[in-house]
TrEMBL record:
<protein>
    <submittedName>
        <fullName>Flp pilus assembly protein ATPase CpaE</fullName>
    </submittedName>
</protein>
<dbReference type="InterPro" id="IPR027417">
    <property type="entry name" value="P-loop_NTPase"/>
</dbReference>
<dbReference type="GO" id="GO:0051782">
    <property type="term" value="P:negative regulation of cell division"/>
</dbReference>
<feature type="compositionally biased region" description="Basic residues">
    <location>
        <begin position="415"/>
        <end position="426"/>
    </location>
</feature>
<dbReference type="Pfam" id="PF01656">
    <property type="entry name" value="CbiA"/>
</dbReference>
<keyword id="KW-0547">Nucleotide-binding</keyword>
<dbReference type="InterPro" id="IPR011006">
    <property type="entry name" value="CheY-like_superfamily"/>
</dbReference>
<dbReference type="GO" id="GO:0000160">
    <property type="term" value="P:phosphorelay signal transduction system"/>
</dbReference>
<feature type="modified residue" description="4-aspartylphosphate">
    <location>
        <position position="66"/>
    </location>
</feature>
<feature type="domain" description="Response regulatory">
    <location>
        <begin position="16"/>
        <end position="131"/>
    </location>
</feature>
<keyword id="KW-0597">Phosphoprotein</keyword>
<dbReference type="InterPro" id="IPR002586">
    <property type="entry name" value="CobQ/CobB/MinD/ParA_Nub-bd_dom"/>
</dbReference>
<keyword id="KW-0067">ATP-binding</keyword>
<dbReference type="GO" id="GO:0009898">
    <property type="term" value="C:cytoplasmic side of plasma membrane"/>
</dbReference>
<dbReference type="GO" id="GO:0016887">
    <property type="term" value="F:ATP hydrolysis activity"/>
</dbReference>
<feature type="region of interest" description="Disordered">
    <location>
        <begin position="388"/>
        <end position="426"/>
    </location>
</feature>
<dbReference type="InterPro" id="IPR050625">
    <property type="entry name" value="ParA/MinD_ATPase"/>
</dbReference>
Amino acid sequence: MNAPWKPGVGQRDTFHAFVCDDHSFDLLRAVASEMGWPPEKVNKGGMRNAVQSLSITASPQILFVDMSESGDPLNDINSLAEVCEPGTVVIAAGQVNDVRLYRDLIASGIQDYLLKPFGADQLRDALTQAQAVFLAPRETAPERPHCTVAVIGTRGGVGASSIATSLAWLLSEKKKRPTALLDLDVHFGTNALAMDLEPGRGLTDAIENPSRIDGLFIERAMVRASDTLAILSAEAPISQPMMTDGGAFYQLLEEFRLAFECSVIDLPRNMLIQHPHLMTDANIAVVVTELTLAAARDTIRILSWLKTNAPQSRVLVVANRVHPGAPEISRKDFEQSIERKVDVIVPFDLRISAQAAKLGKTLAETAKSSKVGASCIALLDAVMGAAADDDETPRPARGKGDSLLGKIGDLKSKLPTRRKDKAAVL
């Protein structure tokens, strides 16, 4: 069980206890007083009272809980984990003398388990050890800079969500980076669906109550796809408009930076207009497009927007679902139009796309040994390279004759002409 009482320090009471019998109650009050802790923090009621109390109040640094009346100790520990804040050191007590239970409790994150009846010396030693554990300096691994990747589709249907879920999966599975995936299409997002997960209400609750967003909220609201990948999404009723100033999204990204090494944002185009601040801290922008005239126009517009509003972001252009035959616009003409290279080409493969949807897996996971899979790995390498080198590549300045309409006109002139006869209609 991933118990939330992981080491951490916060402003909270030093000690709380919840016990079932008078002897334990009196003994705990006496030992607590010896250690300089308020004896009134010792309560009657055991596990049930502990869960009820801690669901509405902050949990202490050290928690003593009596499990004597618990019919299912491990299940009750899970319930306690749901209401315990990070950093709490938990000591349990009970009447079951079973080494398997002891091992399961320790594995769940419990600091110690005392067999009743226990004496004052045994209790004092357990509490002293718990205090030492809480106050001990924490050994932390060297921090790596957080990587935030925004995935933006130039047109509806270009497969930006497929790229976002694949990239998040690759970061978490191939690079072993704890990764958060945020689907900001509140009404029609498909990130959770693509992984065969229920989206939950986490994102909706965050939008409705931004003040609730903290580390504990993130722990409870996000849906786990694996040990290293968590998703925050929604499936809000289409009759329910999204009323937010974007502050909730900013707070979510702040918490992601504290809890994860990487964040992948599936960012619909309209969010760039409504909430441009979402790109403020994005290291990398992945612009997903297709080789069509309309997509070329919108790629130019989005690249221009990013250059003005997110100059700190390294931009990668991904041409997705490229058919093996002749595309509407050749890669060369497309690149000339947008004044830069396409970084990754992902070929269209109907069989793999259908298989991914059927299995409830990401495109990258399903297409491991295919050209599509190789393209996904190429994207991962490009993202990791961009994260390691945030220097923006200079782009050629636009000349007087290089207007957007002029470029689109040049592309149109290169498209195949249509025959004005009956065969063309057919």
